[in-house]
Design brief:
By secondary structure, the chain is an alpha+beta fold. 46% of the residues lie in helices and 22% in strands. The strands form four sheets. Strands 4-7-2-1-9-13-12 form a seven-stranded mixed β-sheet. A four-stranded antiparallel β-sheet has the order 8-14-10-11. Strands 3-6-5 form a three-stranded antiparallel β-sheet.
Length: 571
């Protein structure tokens, strides 16, 4: 449709809806409708016009919001400058006096080895980490993650990758843009180890990248001025504190280094992959004396926010103020150690009813089976069974030998039934009974003028109960959309029925009536059509809540039965 025609069509729709709303509000226009159908017609016309105008206004607000300037970029000041990189690297050189940097696969002696050499070597192969454990606790929109990393210096000594004495620096990888609450490193004797400040860590990372860059592009001579400029730009890129999108990183890396192959024996793809990893991750450094420690335990806690806009269901819960039920935890540390264990703990009133792995590729998210990841002998992945408890876990072995993928562990929680859904069902059942009773009592009450204020209050009782449960019960905020919508429907029917009762007893006495007959045997008394509609809506809501509650209870009982069948473990 051409632009002008589309604009005229939209303006015409807005004018028609506005005219319909005014017609429903003006008594002069409503007088053209027969008196018996006047108020229902005005009500339906007004509601339809209001809904149409609200939808148009909502779309206009979305378009206006999309045209607003996006969040200001902080890329210019979120990483160290060239001067800061140079100063950090110079301080590291003075502190650790590096010897000549050699490749990861090149044999080295203790005389050639230095702390910077070891730091760069461990960044490449990561053989120093024996186990990583993550304990994630769900607290509303936040995910509190307690990470424990075990480092074995004894294993490095057996592999002749560690000097006999002196201080070395051990790299500990972390995700970027996480609120780091604490960081602590201790040896096997529970002695606290030094955690290097960030500027020294940047200096160590700069030396490591310089060694990889020189091995790939200038193995036999010093770097030229142009190559040095590229190197500093590359170090500044990976030392940024924000997460760089993979597509944006590829563009930036190509603009800095280019697509030309290296001149050295080492493949420049190793440099690209290391830099690509640090586009979304960072590193901390722990200083340890080789003669005093054989085992290191690093513990830190970080806090991240959960994505509440991943699906339409999540967005609906966000709009209605209901807490999230689906949590996605990145497991990139699984590629960092031979043994990786993840545990996820939710609220005590919930249980895990679904637990799976997904892989993110741009904007698409695909579910991945554990059997598709364990492709080599010695690799294994196991998801804990859903046993009707607010806890689940993931256990991985040998994934550090595989190519890193952007994996996430997804845990979906559900309220332990009956929970708040039972209260919603009781309120809906009471509302249905009251609506059904008034549907057959109103014709006689209106004709005999027996309307009382007590009846209007009785009609509003389910609405007040639904409002009270929705506001004062914290479990409603942790329940399902079904519970929330059930409360809204019951409250709406209750308050609308109370208002209708007042209108019928004061103004609208000639409402349409209908006499129902069942199979020609059972003949019901005359009933009010409008009240029958309210009763039908309330009964349908009650039936739906009953079916949904029964299904959720069966699903919860099935999860409890898995505790007795250990053979159902997923591998």
């Amino acid at each position: 449709m051409p632009f002008q025609k589309r604009t005229f069509f939209r303006v015409g729709v807005v004018l028609i809806l506005t005219a319909a709303f005014l017609a429903a509000c003006l008594d002069n226009v409503a007088a053209l409708v027969p008196e018996s159908w006047r108020w229902p017609a005005r009500f339906l016309l007004g509601m339809a016009a209001t809904a149409g105008l609200a939808r148009i206004m909502r779309r206009r607000i979305r378009r206006f919001a999309s045209r607003l300037p996006q969040e200001l970029s902080t890329r210019a000041g979120c990483g160290p400058s060239k001067r800061e990189i140079y100063e950090s690297a110079d301080r590291v050189r003075e502190r650790y006096a590096p010897g000549p940097l050699t490749g990861p696969d090149t044999a080295r002696s203790d005389e050639q080895f230095s702390a910077i050499d070891l730091f760069a070597h461990l960044l490449v192969d990561g053989m120093h980490v024996t186990r990583v454990g993550e304990d994630v606790r769900v607290t509303g929109d936040m995910l509190v993650n307690d990470v424990t990393i075990e480092v074995s210096l004894e294993a490095l000594q057996r592999l002749r990758q560690l000097p006999d004495e002196g201080k070395v620096v051990i790299p500990i990888l972390r995700r970027k843009e996480l609120m780091l609450e604490s960081f602590e490193a201790r040896d096997g004797a529970d002695n606290r180890l030094a955690h290097l400040p960030q500027h020294l860590t940047d200096g160590l990372l700069a030396w490591a990248i310089k060694g990889l860059f020189q091995l790939a592009y200038a193995p036999d001579h010093e770097l030229t001025t142009t190559q040095n400029s590229k190197l500093y730009r590359l170090i500044g890129l990976i030392c940024r504190t924000d997460i760089i999108d993979p597509a944006e990183f590829e563009v930036a890396y190509t603009a800095i280094v280019g697509n030309t192959g290296g001149t050295g024996a080492d493949d420049p793809q190793l440099l690209r992959s290391i830099c690509g990893y640090f586009a979304g991750n960072t590193v901390s450094a722990v200083e340890v004396d080789v003669a005093e420690a054989e085992q290191i335990y690093v513990r830190f806690q970080d806090i991240t926010t959960n994505n509440r806009l991943a699906s339409s269901h999540d967005r609906h819960r966000t709009r209605l103020g209901i807490r999230p039920y689906r949590y996605r935890i990145p497991i990139n540390l699984a590629y960092y150690a031979h043994i990786y264990d993840l545990s996820v703990t939710g609220h005590e009133s919930h249980f895990v009813f679904k637990h799976y792995l997904v892989e993110s590729a741009g904007q698409t998210v695909n579910e991945v089976l554990p059997s598709h990841l364990a492709t080599e002998p010695g690799m294994g992945l196991r998801l804990d069974r859903n046993q009707g408890i607010p806890h689940t876990g993931l256990h991985i072995r040998g994934l550090n030998r595989a190519v890193a993928r952007n994996l996430e562990c997804v845990a979906e929680f559900e309220e332990i039934p009956p929970g708040a859904l039972r209260r919603t069902l009781v309120i809906s059942a009471v509302c249905s009974f009251v609506m059904l009773a008034f549907a057959f009592a109103m014709p006689n009450a209106v004709s005999d003028s027996k309307g009382t204020d007590l009846a209007a209050l009785l009609l509003a009782v389910p609405g007040f109960a639904a409002t009270l449960v929705g506001i004062s019960t914290d479990r409603v905020q942790q329940s399902s959309l079904t519970t929330f919508i059930g409360l809204v429907v019951s409250a709406s029917i209750s308050f609308a029925a109370s208002l209708l009762y007042v209108l019928q007893t004061l103004l609208w006495r000639e409402s349409p009536q209908l006499r129902l007959s069942i199979l020609g045997v059972v003949k019901l008394p005359s009933g009010d059509v409008v009240w029958m509609v309210f009763a039908a809506l309330s009964i349908c809501t009650t039936v739906y809540l009953t079916v949904e509650g029964t299904y959720r209870m069966h699903r919860y009982l099935a999860a409890l039965r898995r505790r007795l069948t250990p053979s159902n473990a997923q591998a």
